[in-house]
Write a structure and sequence with these properties.
The complex is a heterodimer.
Chain A lengths: L15 H30 L7 H16 L8 H24 L16 H12 L9 H4 L2 H31 L7 H27 L9 E4 L5 E4 L4 H10 L20 H25 L3 H27 L3 H5 L17 H14 L14 H13 L8 H21 L4 E2 L2 E2 L2 H27 L1 H4 L7 H15 L14 H30 L16 H34 L1
Antiparallel strand pairs in A: 1-2, 3-4
Helix pairs in contact in A: 1-9, 1-12, 2-7, 3-4, 3-6, 3-18, 4-18, 6-7, 6-8, 6-18, 7-8, 7-9, 8-9, 9-10, 9-12, 10-12, 10-13, 10-19, 12-13, 13-17, 13-19, 14-19, 15-17, 15-18, 17-18, 17-19
Chain B lengths: L1 H26 L9
The chains are: A mainly alpha, B mainly alpha.
Chain lengths: 575, 36
């Protein structure tokens, strides 16, 4: 006989949605607590001065520099951009050769065949650009050697490239000693940030039950007497960098909804924190490096407000359930649980979806195709804006780009010379920023229009109508934002999809990188104008509102029509 | 054959990126900015 139940202890008992709010609040509070010191740490890693960290990591780095012949000299922006492009081109070549020859290379105990050429192009473009869009299933499409030498390798180098870019842009905008050296930044991002963090997270995941083995798949006999192949492998090391590097590609086809990738609610929390940690830290890094900490806080707050808005929409849409299912008698009391893991529930799924598309990771723990229409609008909109924290390095660069645009617009409106951190913003910088802002919608909307107008695209749609439009637009938005998550339900392993999304991923990554390096180089060469009473301040709440309005208005003007044709129309139809 | 298509696609893309870099340098009238 029970004397009392948990319901009787009022302070312990909570309604389900209260538990959800507590869970979300705890994760976000933990994120802020971790991001502030992490931002300070990253600033010290990429400081061009000698630091105490050199004593710990300096020895290893010196060996790497010596073996690879890296000269630690300062680069101009063009040298930096060339080094970035050439090193990425070489990585593409190596990766492509390995996946094409994996059937005759060692490390293939499951005898997986060579990857088909256009699928290999798409796969390497995807992992090279930090997208990790997968038109193959990880456990059956790649050998262990390919997983480790290509996929995990690129999962380290591409976030490191993004972080290096971010540091170069910050140094240029804030007028440090120089833009820096790409190779030194790339090495430091590995040795001082990604590798130590990846080891810690991988060990934690092993503790939660994630496999880490080189043994082949297991053949098990089910209770019905049927033989079943259970895939396994070096999963923990893969999943840790998958999130820390905002990569997103799964070891298994179903990604982080697979119990071997994400076995417990605790692993779910750590995976979300892992993918958000570096993108959320970099605004603070910017504050430290510019010696204007308030400026960093403003950028973080702007991204945080957008994130909370999208998270609320995703959570309440999913928690309210699907009205179409309710009408046919399926209870929606627990929310829209179609396509979700029971162990994560609505809160763990909605938060994961919002985080993974804000940080452009692309890892998923639920089926995005089965999100409610407005729940599905959230990942789409975040990928379209591409600056709600964003991927490692590139998200902060994007919000800096919008900050410069906001300063320019506000300066014109009030009749003051636009300045950002004491450097005049002129038409030449604005031309490059305008091109960068226009390329993103162009490479989403133009191929979506082609796909929807031709049989090459429409034949892949599994759910015609408004939802089919969302499926197509999502695929290109995910590629352009270098996110990599899929709405799924799209038959995308065809020459059309492999070529089109492969090119969109490459264009989405490198055009903006080059343009922002050029802007940083241009601002670097300018003399700093002393701050006066007439200077338009960019570290106060007024600027915060202007920045938010700039991002949201530009985003709405560009993408609202297609959102109306897809998720909004679907929502109006089923509600 | 399809390998050649893949090589052409990536070659075309990176040629565009290097071309875009030159374009950016022209836009900002670059004369060696970015270094101390």
């Amino acid at each position: 006989m029970h004397l009392f139940t948990l319901k009787d202890i009022n302070f312990l008992y909570m309604e389900e949605n209260e538990m959800d709010f507590l869970q979300i609040a705890l994760v976000l509070a933990l994120l802020v607590i971790l991001a502030i010191p992490m931002g300070r740490y990253i600033a010290s890693v990429f400081s061009l001065e000698e630091t105490k960290l050199d004593k710990i990591f300096g020895g290893v780095e010196k060996v790497i520099y010596k073996l690879s012949g890296i000269q630690q000299t300062d680069m101009k922006w063009k040298q930096y951009a060339k080094a970035l492009l050439l090193s990425n081109l070489v990585m593409f070549g190596l990766g492509y050769i390995i996946v094409r020859l994996q059937h005759i290379l060692p490390g293939n105990p499951s005898d997986i065949g060579a990857m088909e050429p256009l699928l290999a192009f798409n796969t390497i473009a995807s992992f090279l650009t930090n997208t990790n869009l997968q038109h193959y299933s990880g456990e059956s499409g790649l050998s262990y050697l390919s997983q480790m030498m290509v996929i995990i390798f690129l999962m380290f180098t591409t976030p490191a490239t993004g972080i290096a870019l971010c540091m170069a842009v910050i140094r240029g905008i804030t007028g440090q000693k120089s833009i820096g050296n790409f190779y030194v930044d790339l090495v430091r991002a590995h040795t001082r940030i990604l590798i130590p963090l990846a080891i810690l997270v991988a060990l934690f995941l092993v503790g939660q039950g994630v496999p880490q083995t080189m043994k082949p798949t297991v053949t098990a006999t089910t209770v019905e007497g049927v033989e079943q192949q259970i895939a396994r492998g070096p999963v923990a090391s893969f999943v840790s960098i998958k999130h820390l590097g905002t990569n997103g590609g799964g070891f298994f086809g179903v990604n982080s909804s697979h119990p071997f990738e994400n076995p417990t609610p605790l692993s779910n929390v750590v995976e979300m924190l892992s993918m958000f940690l570096i993108p959320a830290s970099l605004p603070f890094t910017f504050g430290w490096m510019s010696r204007k900490r308030k400026q960093g806080i403003i950028l973080f707050t702007a991204m945080g407000i957008m994130f909370l808005g999208f998270l609320s929409l995703a959570y309440f849409s999913e928690a309210n359930g699907n009205p179409a299912l309710e009408r046919i008698g399926l209870s929606q009391d627990n929310g829209s649980m179609e396509g979700k893991e029971v162990r994560f529930g609505i809160a763990g799924s909605a938060l994961f979806t919002t985080v993974t598309t804000a940080a452009t990771t692309g890892s998923v723990n639920n089926m995005h195709d089965t999100l409610t229409p407005l729940g599905g609008l959230v990942p789409l909109a975040q990928m379209m804006l591409n600056c709600v924290f964003g991927g490692d390095g590139v998200g902060t660069v994007n919000i800096l780009m919008y900050s410069i645009l906001a300063v320019f617009i506000a300066g014109l409106m009030v009749g003051r010379t636009p300045e950002f951190l004491g450097r005049k913003i002129e038409p030449k910088e604005m031309k490059l920023i305008a091109i960068t802002i226009l390329i993103h919608p162009l490479i989403i909307l133009a191929p979506s229009a082609i796909a929807l107008a031709t049989n090459m695209g429409t034949s892949a749609i599994s759910n015609p109508g408004f939802h089919g439009i969302s499926q197509v637009v999502y695929e290109f938005a995910s590629s352009a934002a270098n996110n990599g998550s899929g709405f799924e339900g799209l038959g995308d392993n065809t020459p059309f999809w492999n070529i089109s999304t492969g090119l969109v991923m490459l264009f989405g990554r490198y055009f903006s990188m080059i343009a922002m390096l050029a802007v940083a180089g241009s601002l670097f060469s300018k003399k700093q104008v002393p701050e006066t009473i007439g200077t338009f301040r960019t570290d106060n709440s007024t600027f915060l509102v202007i920045l938010l309005a700039t991002v949201l208005i530009v985003g709405a003007l560009t993408f609202f029509p297609v959102l109306v044709l897809g998720p909004v129309a679907e929502w109006l139809r089923i509600r | 054959m399809m390998d050649l298509v893949s090589i052409a696609l990536v070659g075309f893309s990176f040629a565009l990126f290097f071309g875009f870099m030159k374009f950016c340098a022209n836009v900002i009238d670059d004369k060696g900015s970015g270094n101390s």
